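As practice, study what follows.
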Amino acid sequence: MRAFIVDRYGKSGNVLRAGDVPEPEVREHDVLVQVHAAGVNALDVKIRDGEFKLVLPYRPPFVLGNDVAGVVVRAGAGVRRFKPGDEVYARPDKDRIGTFAELISVNEDDLAPKPKRLTMEEAAAVPLVGLTAWQALVEIADLRKGQKVFIHAGAGGVGTFAIQLAKHLGATVATTTSAANVDLVKRLGADVVIDYRKDDFETVLRDYDVVLNSLDDETLRKSLRVLKPGGKLISISGPPDPAFAREIGKPWTLGPVMRVLSRRIRKAAQRRQVSYSFLFMRANGKQLSEITSLIDSAVITPVIDRIFPFESTNEALAYVQKGRAKGKVVVKIK
């Protein structure tokens, strides 16, 4: 089958190789999915460039890609919830990525029915950012009606989804964006919009319950100032904390490293009487099914910036790497 492959890590002009690879193995509880579309994420760029090789040691050559929408081709003997012909979508488990390909094998626990009101391309834009927003706002933050949440980069992939989810949960939502995207984030539900090129968010916002950070370390530190005591700072861009080492099953080897990397922000959070959590979202078909229900009820609608053909996967990654996409970028494979 055709796929886009990482032959080596590296940031200097590194591109994926288009080539043929064997069809993936289908184990007892796996579902073989014919890929119709794949979301393209900043995570893909970071994996390609080797930024996660300490914690996600994929051995080149490997197929890249973390979002999929497609049709079930074959199901393992132990699969009970899916059958050939079913339309599905998923963020595969971190150890089984590879959606920039014609086929992928996914554990049935990581799959969910594709939202009926979405095209394959629209559905492929959802799993990674949808699960990130869900695990940050529902699972970690336990965001409630009447609370205030500040979501950085509201026009990005995670931001556009998180704003809609937070509004559904009944929160007041603040976000940052450029002037060109103010109308977009307001349509999605943002109550307070800050033009990051003109204003400093930490001088505008006060007494927030939750901050969802996806930007750099300086922004992360500034975010502490907008939280009230007891507030929660959740970051998807680091630094990783010791809990992350436990989650990925490497507490003895990576725990001390994560403790050092996150010491500064954890101490600063403690001084301000708030908590700090690093989130590296995980595959979860049950949560994705909850998201399917919200989408089919028209509570949340994915935002698509551009759709690239399969043969232009490298161009799609380059576009995402610029950091200017409104919502998600998708590769159409079938």
